[in-house]
């Protein structure tokens, strides 16, 4: 594996010496994926210098590996003629992505400079919502008719795939009006007798996507069927394009990011996930505030609960200092349960029908871990405060608290799922607060009943 | 999309009527991926009934979509002869996975029943660590020599790919000793003149994996270069097999699960990730206890800090009830920062060189959100307790607490990364505890300095 920082150092040395030819040669030697890693680390002006030295082919390849922001940045800073040439070399879906991320008038300027057929097709892609199959698909697909022979198809591929820069995984069979009839894998094509008809070797029972299917449905279908590509049709079953594994790979990474963000209460509903980490700071604040606000409300309930036990704290101030301990551990083990259930529901390892089993299992785990930790806390508190009653109450509160945290943490995702609310969205911060409130009630009740009477 | 529960209901009705032919026909109509979803929901004995009714081809296809546990369960419960036939139909890597999950003597029994060549190859796969390229790869690869013509290769594929059930993405070019020389994509092959030599169209600068590369490296390479398949070589550059996208897809899902587990303090180092959700309860406890234990130590520090301010609490019990509020919100916003940085470092959107920028950015976000929440808390507390001094102190503590939480949450992942510790492993629970401790010090100091003097 290449060491990026070493490479960057060497490139900077060459740039300082202003030996353009050497820099050009050096850059040409990298795989585009490696170049993308290098560009990520360069300063914007260095990046531009290097980008200008790439030939058009390589620049177009690089586009597919870098972030949308960097694509727009680099293309915006070079000569528009060259930028148009680079765009024309991209697959249609990639070109549409770049153009879609530009300012509207800039998009129009570029579209006017592109070859007519290409710009028409890109324009059509831009009309789809970018999160749907229509916005993700590549509209250029190799199609054949069902009465062609295998040899016809092989000859056709030879001309067509080369000229149109086609991605080849499957060959789609359509009728004259472009209705999707079937699919033939390249493997099947290459291993069938050359005089066989396509209709005799095609599969007609096809897994397909619709132009307005959303990205989470698309990733689910790919994950489930594990195909390399799926065809995209419109309402009338006319073939509009195809989506390949590398498109889905990006979607998959985005979805994972959203899942992880949501688990810590970062909302990806109103603000695009890209914006939160690097975009406008106000957008980041908008994405992060909603769940914090709900936590605030929940914690005010906790404060209110504690307030009810004011007299207890006044009578026995020492009990107050154990509040963070109970809240911290209850919150942690509850979060573990939520995480396991939310992830399990998302991968399909956990299903609603197994809810009862999982709640019991987690409760048992909570009880075992809670008992161990309860005993530890009892002993430490006893040794430290020389007050065994206090130790026992804190220990019992800990055991109950941790057990309840696992039950709440397991139950809530199932409850949300069964009323069709995404458990990933609502679980984390809300449950942590619930556990805080319940934990305080348990603890102060125990203290009031046992300690205040004992003393 | 198919509605699984409706399907299950229908199947159960047919099973009750004991009309085997109808059940058989019904089952044959499903795609194997759908069958896998259905099997997931059936009871074990229903599953077995249905499995026995599948023909061998379909049963082998189904194997590739179900979990290892279910594979072993189903194969173990049917006739060994039939089980062997199903195994022989699987790709070598899938067969090795199933056999590797069985008891050792069972594995041997099956290996003895399989065709000699097949069992030899599977035996070799079983010698590799299952988390390395050797354990993941499929050893059956289509290879050609560099002096063959395109037409030769096409003819060769026609015979070879059909017979050996080969996956076709790329064709690997090797010398007589099976050293890897180059790669030709199917697309290139199909679009090149038939009399061209393979060596003239092959790419020699190949991205390849080694048999002992670990799964996280493999997923990184696939993510970076976005190929559909990568060749696997040994120390001497001899081609041993290839890994395809669908293998990596499973690895990728496993890695995501690990990343998500670790973020909530579930350790995947000692216990296999599969075991935590469904396996032995003691393993689940082993995976979950370590970080809880560290939280326990951290929270005892927090308790100790609070203990130092005993006199403050005794003098002014009301201040104690705000502890959960401060800890809860500090913890939440800090967790958001950690999540953003850990995920960003994992996808490459955030790099060490941008650490300073991100720390400043997060600090600013923490300050803005902290100020808003601080003001809210001040006003609510004032209105509720009619004590503006208390409100101001709690509000200021909230602002400082949330700002510090973002700084700690941003700084720690970078610090861990820079000393080559995986930030995902160590961040979550430790930082939550740190924020608790720091938050309490800030709060009680403010209370002691301002409130105890004011009163």
Structure description:
The structure is a homodimer of 455-residue chains. Chain A contains 24 helices and 6 strands. A 3-stranded mixed sheet of chain A has the order 1-2-3. With 455 residues, chain A is mainly alpha-helical. In chain A, 70% of the residues lie in helices and 6% in strands. The mean pLDDT of chain A is 86. In chain A, helix 5 crosses helix 7, helix 15 packs across helix 16 and helix 18 runs parallel beside helix 24. Chain A has 3 domains: 124 residues, MgtE N-terminal fold, CATH 1.25.60.10; 104 residues, Roll (CBS-domain); 181 residues, SLC41 divalent cation transporters, integral membrane domain (Tetracycline Repressor, domain 2). In chain A, a hairpin with a 5-residue loop joins strand 2 and strand 3. Chains A and B meet through helix 3, helix 12, helix 13, helix 15 and helix 16 of A and helix 3, helix 12, helix 13, helix 15 and helix 16 of B.
Strand content of chain A: 5-15%
User: How much is the radius of gyration of chain A in Å?
Assistant: 30 Å
CATH homologous superfamily grouping of the largest domain in chain A: SLC41 divalent cation transporters, integral membrane domain
**Overall helicity of chain A:** 55-70%
From the N-terminal CA to the C-terminal CA of chain A, the straight-line distance is 68 Å
Tell me, rounded to a whole number, the average pLDDT of chain A.
86
Major sheet details of chain A: 3 strands, mixed
Query: In total, how many domains does the architecture of chain A comprise?
Result: 3
Question: What is the number of strand segments of chain A?
Answer: 6
Total of helices of chain A: 24
Shape assignment of chain A: elongated
By CATH, the topology of the largest domain in chain A is Tetracycline Repressor, domain 2
- Give the largest chain-chain interface (CB within 8 Å): A-B, 107 and 107 residues
Strand order of the largest sheet of chain A: 1-2-3
CATH structural class of the largest domain in chain A? Mainly Alpha
* CATH architecture descriptor of the largest domain in chain A: Orthogonal Bundle
Low-pLDDT ranges of chain A: none
Succession of helices and strands of chain A:
HHHHHHHHHHHEHEEHHEHEEHHHHHHHHH
């Amino acid at each position: 594996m290449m060491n990026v920082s070493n490479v960057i150092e060497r490139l900077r040395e060459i740039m300082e010496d202003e030996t353009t030819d050497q820099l050009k040669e050096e850059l040409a030697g990298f795989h585009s994926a490696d170049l993308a890693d290098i560009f990520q680390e360069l300063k914007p002006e260095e990046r531009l210098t290097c980008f200008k030295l790439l030939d058009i082919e390589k620049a177009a390849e690089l586009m597919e590996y870098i972030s949308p922001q960097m694509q727009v940045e680099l293309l915006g800073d070079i000569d528009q003629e060259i930028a148009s040439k680079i765009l024309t070399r991209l697959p249609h879906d990639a070109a549409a992505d770049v153009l879609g991320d530009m300012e509207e008038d800039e998009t129009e300027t570029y579209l006017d400079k592109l070859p007519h057929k290409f710009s028409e097709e890109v324009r059509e892609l831009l009309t789809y919502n970018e999160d749907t199959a229509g916005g993700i698909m590549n509209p250029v697909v190799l199609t054949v008719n069902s009465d062609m022979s295998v040899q016809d198809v092989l000859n056709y591929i030879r001309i067509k795939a080369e000229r149109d820069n086609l991605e080849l995984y499957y060959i789609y069979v359509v009728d004259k009006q472009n209705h999707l009839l079937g699919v033939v894998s390249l493997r099947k094509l290459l291993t069938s007798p050359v005089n066989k008809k396509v209709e005799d070797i095609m599969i007609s029972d096809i897994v397909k996507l619709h132009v307005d299917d959303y990205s989470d449905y698309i990733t689910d279908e790919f994950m489930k069927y594990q195909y390399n590509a799926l065809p995209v049709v419109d309402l009338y079953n006319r073939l509009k394009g195809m989506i390949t594994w590398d498109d889905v790979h990006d979607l998959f990474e985005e979805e994972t990011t959203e899942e992880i963000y949501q688990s810590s209460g970062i909302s990806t509903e109103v603000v695009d996930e890209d914006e939160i980490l690097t975009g406008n700071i106000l957008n980041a604040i908008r994405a992060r505030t909603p769940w914090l606000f709900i936590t605030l409300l929940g914690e005010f309930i906790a404060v209110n609960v504690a307030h009810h036990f004011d007299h207890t704290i006044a009578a026995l101030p020492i009990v107050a200092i154990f509040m963070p301990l109970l809240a911290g551990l209850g919150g942690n083990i509850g979060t573990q349960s939520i995480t396991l259930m939310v992830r399990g529901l998302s991968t399909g390892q956990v299903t609603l029908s197994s809810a009862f089993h999982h709640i019991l299992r987690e409760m048992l785990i909570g009880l075992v871990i809670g008992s161990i930790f309860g005993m530890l806390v009892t002993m430490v508190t006893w040794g430290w405060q020389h007050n065994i009653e206090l130790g026992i109450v804190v220990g019992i509160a800990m055991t109950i608290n941790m057990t309840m945290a696992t039950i709440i943490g397991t139950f809530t995702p199932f409850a949300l799922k069964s009323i069709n609310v995404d458990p990933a969205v609502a679980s984390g911060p809300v449950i942590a607060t619930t556990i805080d409130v319940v934990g305080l009630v348990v603890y102060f009740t125990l203290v009031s009943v046992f300690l205040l009477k004992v003393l």
